[in-house]
Automatic annotation (TrEMBL):
Residues 10-320 form the Enoyl reductase (ER) domain. It holds the Pfam family ADH_N. The keyword Nucleus does not apply. The keyword Membrane does not apply. It comes from Devosia lucknowensis. The lineage of its organism: Bacteria, Pseudomonadati, Pseudomonadota, Alphaproteobacteria, Hyphomicrobiales. This is NADPH:quinone reductase. It comes from the Bacteria.
Length: 322
């Protein structure tokens, strides 16, 4: 079978290549799945570059989430069946066949597209857990950068359902219009010199008590500049690959607290994760949760897929197709 493989850490488009590998066999509690579609997440690319929270043994096959068709069941798996379409977290998903932990897989209703199903768990579940744990209530204001990314759109959607007010920060004015077309308001572009005044006009001067930071580098100081004294800045991602930059005065004199969030170490109990996953499946089946794929590449073009994922201005994820 064909798999995407890297034998050294480095720039993904340089170290990734398609290779022939042996089809894996499911062990106890596992399922063999024929891959249909797998998204290219930022954390996948960071792992390939050797910059993520763990480093796999090399050579390695990337891919941490997918939708596919069950081909075979390992010992002890009784709640799934061959031929069923399933989604969820995975390892080595950028291959024609991959193994999934049966306990982490969810059957996907026919009404849910492959494009949404392949992204159903990672970003949406992280967003749900984030909002579950940052201690905000209806009427509070929060702000986030990279608001035109998948997480930004999901925070706007699920924050609105909770009654939480969300201010989105983007770089380009065009992105403000793109989000408005999706029904997402209260977005400001930092290319405008008076963007902080626009934020204040949106909130009416109300304190912004939480900031969700996904860029790294100068993104942290920009976001902190609109937060209220005593607010919490949550480091959720590092899209620029740069260390957080924050003035010492924000910590010393304004009382800003910085904390991290990593979905790989869930801050909620397992039973709560199950509840949130159930909500996501129901939302997707009802059409309330729709996640776009801009373009899908075959495994043979995995290096090009990695390059395309870094292009600005995308309206959806890049994916690998089986």
């Amino acid at each position: 079978m064909k798999s995407a493989v890297y034998s050294q850490f480095g720039t993904p488009e340089k170290v990734l290549a398609a290779q022939d590998t042996e089809r894996p066999q499911p062990g106890p509690g596992q399922v063999l799945i024929r891959m249909v579609l797998s998204p290219v997440h930022n954390h996948d690319l960071m792992t390939i570059a050797g910059q993520y929270g763990f480093k796999p043994s090399l050579p390695a096959v990337p891919g941490t989430e997918a939708v596919g068709i069950v081909e075979a069941l390992g010992e002890g798996v009784t709640h799934l069946k061959v031929g069923q379409r399933v989604a969820g977290g995975a390892e080595a998903a950028w291959a024609e066949y991959y193994l999934g932990n049966a306990a982490r897989l969810v059957p996907v209703p026919d009404s849910v597209s492959d494009e949404t199903a392949c992204q159903l768990v990672s970003m949406p579940l992280s967003t749900k857990m984030l909002l579950d744990t940052i201690d905000v209530k209806a009427g509070d204001w929060i702000a986030l950068n990279a608001a035109n990314g998948a997480v930004g759109k999901l925070v706007a959607q699920y924050g609105r359902e909770l009654g939480v007010n969300v201010v989105g920060i983007v770089r380009r004015a065009a992105a403000v219009d793109e989000l408005a077309a999706l029904g997402i308001a209260n977005v400001v572009a930092t290319e405008s010199e008076d963007w902080r005044d626009k934020v204040k006009a949106i909130t009416g001067g109300a304190p912004i008590v939480r900031g969700i930071e996904s860029l790294g580098g100068d993104g942290a100081s920009e976001l902190a500049s609109i937060l209220a004294d005593g607010a919490v800045l949550v480091s959720f991602g590092a899209m620029t690959g740069r260390p957080l930059k924050l003035p010492a005065s924000d910590l010393l004199f304004r009382g800003i607290t910085v904390k991290g969030f990593w979905g790989a170490k869930p801050p909620v109990k397992p039973e709560r994760i199950g509840e949130l996953l159930g909500e996501l499946v129901r939302d997707a089946a009802a059409g309330k949760l729709q996640l776009d794929i801009e373009k899908a590449y075959p495994i043979s073009e995995v290096a090009e897929a990695a390059r395309a994922s870094g292009e600005p201005g995308r309206k959806g994820k890049i994916a690998i197709r089986g």
